[in-house]
Design goal:
about 190 residues, 7-stranded mixed beta sheet
């Protein structure tokens, strides 16, 4: 029987301890470690966050940077006895929504929004399908986007809605799921 990769989903609010928890889960699996960085360092604050994450992880990781076609980026590792940490899904969603097109988000049509969401959904489904058909396990980190205020601007609301649906998709398909709040973990699945 072919090995099916295991997916562990870690969600929570900003600065809740998600990444630290996810890294511990990766180390517990005791496999080759691959880090998929979905963030884009577009300013000094983000560059500093990336720098601190690298220090926290240490040097024992293979790092891949990208937010599109992650399944293709991982193809050469498909047979590796490894674990992938994708940090994070909400950055992947954001970048796939806004980096490919310039849109007037206050006046975007529902048809365009459906196309964008379908593209993001395909990206996420391709990752899930790839992992389940590989020897790799994956830990997916994502921000819980539905527990705060309703964003006062259109792009924020569209992101919250699409991000929330992608979180639901991963939550449904994962083997384990954890909610991290104030550094404390709650096993959901």
């Amino acid at each position: 029987m072919r090995y099916l990769g295991k997916i562990i989903y870690v969600t929570g609010g900003a600065r809740s301890g998600k990444s630290s928890f996810a890294e511990k889960k990766v180390f517990q699996l005791n496999k080759e470690r691959i880090y998929v960085a979905t963030a884009i360092s577009f300013d000094d604050e983000m560059r500093e966050r990336v720098r601190l994450h690298k220090i926290q992880r240490g040097d024992s990781w293979t790092t891949i940077e990208g937010y599109r076609d992650v399944d293709k980026l991982l193809e050469c590792y498909k047979e590796l006895n490894g674990v992938v940490l994708l940090d994070c899904l909400t950055n992947l969603v954001t970048n796939n929504m806004i980096m490919e097109k310039e849109l007037d988000w206050d006046n975007v049509s529902q048809d365009i929004l459906k196309e964008i969401e379908e593209d993001v959904k395909n990206q996420v489904q391709n990752i899930i399908k790839f992992i389940k058909n590989s020897s790799l396990d994956m830990v997916i980190v994502s921000n819980e986007v539905g527990m705060g205020l309703v964003p006062p601007y259109a792009l924020g609301r569209y992101f919250r809605d699409i991000g929330g649906r992608m979180n639901q998709l991963v939550g449904k398909e994962c083997d384990e799921a954890y909610l991290i709040v104030s550094g404390l973990e709650l096993k959901l699945k």
